[in-house]
Amino acid sequence: MGVEILNIDFQLSDLTFAITQIHVSHRSITDSYDMNLHLLRLFAAVAAHRSFSRAAEMLNISQPAVSKGIREFEAQLGSPLFERRSGDVKLSEAGNVLIEHARVLFAIERVAEEALDSLHGLQRGTLRIGASKTVATYFLPPVLGAFFKAYPKIELRLTSANTANVVSLLVKRELDVALVEGPVEMEGIVVTPWRNDELILIAAAKHPLATKRGPHSLQALAGETIVLREEGSGTRDVAWEALETAGFRPSMLLEVSDNEALTRVVAAGLGIGIVSSVVAADQIALGRLTQIKIRSLTIRRALSRLSLPGRQPSPATLAFNSYLTNSELR
Fold this sequence. Notes:
There is one protein chain. The protein is 40% helix and 25% strand. Strands 7, 8, 9, 10, 11, 12, 13, 14 and 15 form a 9-stranded mixed sheet that branches. The chain has a two-stranded antiparallel ribbon with strand order 1-4. A hairpin with a 2-residue loop joins strand 5 (82-85) and strand 6. The radius of gyration is 24 Å and the shape is globular. The chain is built from 11 helices and 15 strands. By secondary structure, the protein is of the alpha/beta class.
């Protein structure tokens, strides 16, 4: 499941720029187009959300205004940008070409913003943080609170997504800070360990394994439904690798895309779940879940900070990274 986040900060409807030699529908446009940046933003918003109505809601304008702007943009370029189908909006060939250029231009705009913000120190600016779901929900809130208290004039924007989508947003330069819980091996990304975490196996309080004294052998899981996060989740990747290393492959698997939903599914007796210990702590304390201990199966992982080599961090990013380091030492 992809996540596309588009931050709309500038209201520069009169700003234009020229794009030349864009290849659309197998023909080269050699004439220079004065392309309105406002219309490009409308296009990017519709492309991100695959919906005119959701784009309008995100931009806080009416849907007719979005539709009119897109028609005007398509007339200007002489090519349709979307294939409109019942209940769905898909990029056309020309739209796929243009969206890549749009992302580059918005990234350049962001670099300009950061350069201007640096002149004002930490008295203004926006910090865009992306974190995988466990990190965003359970590890990051105290850091955000402390940072906001120290720098109330810095606007914080937090995107919570699985590890794969956080990586994608970082590569697109749509994040200033990226924190993930899964392994990342991608050329062009610097991975720095941040904190340690442990994954545990959980079951409903009345599950047969919960009522027997442990730790249990790995074979006790045979025939059990294993409940994991969705593909792309760092928790799933680490859990799956640990099970495979131990020589165990689940015969039945249930995927859940949210930590809270996963713990509730397990509490309802639908299987054995694997989650971060911080995710299950409250439900275990309330007696709704029980930790199942398996001999010779300990699952630990490093939560990591991601960055792009050569990208100069803004003053706000440097300050936030300092708070992350301090939180690691607590």
